[in-house]
Automatic annotation (TrEMBL):
<dbReference type="GO" id="GO:0009378">
    <property type="term" value="F:four-way junction helicase activity"/>
</dbReference>
<dbReference type="InterPro" id="IPR011114">
    <property type="entry name" value="RuvA_C"/>
</dbReference>
<keyword id="KW-0347">Helicase</keyword>
<keyword id="KW-0378">Hydrolase</keyword>
<keyword id="KW-0067">ATP-binding</keyword>
<dbReference type="InterPro" id="IPR003583">
    <property type="entry name" value="Hlx-hairpin-Hlx_DNA-bd_motif"/>
</dbReference>
<dbReference type="GO" id="GO:0005524">
    <property type="term" value="F:ATP binding"/>
</dbReference>
<comment type="function">
    <text>The RuvA-RuvB-RuvC complex processes Holliday junction (HJ) DNA during genetic recombination and DNA repair, while the RuvA-RuvB complex plays an important role in the rescue of blocked DNA replication forks via replication fork reversal (RFR). RuvA specifically binds to HJ cruciform DNA, conferring on it an open structure. The RuvB hexamer acts as an ATP-dependent pump, pulling dsDNA into and through the RuvAB complex. HJ branch migration allows RuvC to scan DNA until it finds its consensus sequence, where it cleaves and resolves the cruciform DNA.</text>
</comment>
<dbReference type="InterPro" id="IPR036267">
    <property type="entry name" value="RuvA_C_sf"/>
</dbReference>
<dbReference type="InterPro" id="IPR013849">
    <property type="entry name" value="DNA_helicase_Holl-junc_RuvA_I"/>
</dbReference>
<dbReference type="InterPro" id="IPR012340">
    <property type="entry name" value="NA-bd_OB-fold"/>
</dbReference>
<keyword id="KW-0234">DNA repair</keyword>
<keyword id="KW-0547">Nucleotide-binding</keyword>
<feature type="region of interest" description="Domain III">
    <location>
        <begin position="143"/>
        <end position="200"/>
    </location>
</feature>
<feature type="domain" description="Helix-hairpin-helix DNA-binding motif class 1">
    <location>
        <begin position="107"/>
        <end position="126"/>
    </location>
</feature>
<keyword id="KW-0227">DNA damage</keyword>
<dbReference type="GO" id="GO:0000400">
    <property type="term" value="F:four-way junction DNA binding"/>
</dbReference>
Length: 200
């Protein structure tokens, strides 16, 4: 099991990055916030989980051991795989998930694409005693330089669809955050704003 990686960031996407470790470029899938917190050429330390499938080996990376623990724990619930677990952390912080489960807050849990009312109830039932108590406030990602033109729209749409929303839902959210793009907000900031719109 690859439990952590330390290396130089070679490339950064909206929800993934390539980390150079000992001459090897490792593709690591992350939340948009984690990807936005690193820069090409900088060193980065990530807690990681290697998911082994019959036809693939996929690395998932996290800014903290707490995120990694939540990612692994939520997958003990039937029907929750790595992609849905990552979507949960893209929409909510670990502490928000803990509070939602402790308070049986179905509305908060169903803001995650792919989780309906029954799925949220199953999460509450099966995770109530597994996620532990709230450990503290998370920190936001680092600021990102402004992006120009309409390139941001395609990038944010792709990330939203990858997280489980359909194109129509993604485009509706993009229309709402477009004024922020005009104010030179970065792509990761626009993605976070779109996620907030979709979570309303």
């Amino acid at each position: 099991m690859i439990a952590s990686l330390s290396g130089t960031v070679l490339t950064v996407g909206l929800d993934s990055l390539v980390l150079g470790v000992g001459g090897v470029g490792m593709l690591v899938h992350t939340t948009p916030a984690t990807a936005a917190s690193v820069r090409t050429g900088q060193s980065a330390d990530l807690a990681t989980t290697l998911v082994v499938r019959e036809d693939s080996l996929t690395l998932y990376g996290f800014a903290s051991a707490d995120e990694k623990a939540v990612f692994e724990t939520v997958q003990t619930v039937s029907g929750v795989g790595p992609r849905l677990a990552l979507a949960m952390l893209a929409v909510h912080s670990p502490d928000t998930l803990r509070l939602a489960i402790a308070r049986e807050d179905i509305a908060t849990l169903t803001k995650v694409p792919g989780i309906g009312k029954k799925g949220a109830e199953r999460l509450v039932l099966e995770l109530r005693d597994k996620l532990g108590v709230v450990v503290g406030e998370g920190t936001g990602p680092a600021a990102e330089p402004a992006d120009t033109g309409e390139v941001w729209r395609a990038q944010v749409r792709e990330a939203l669809v990858g997280l489980g929303w359909n194109v129509k839902q993604a485009d509706a959210a993009l229309d709402k955050v477009a004024p922020q793009a005009a104010e030179d907000a970065g792509v990761s900031a626009l993605l976070r704003a779109a996620l907030q719109e979709l979570g309303r």
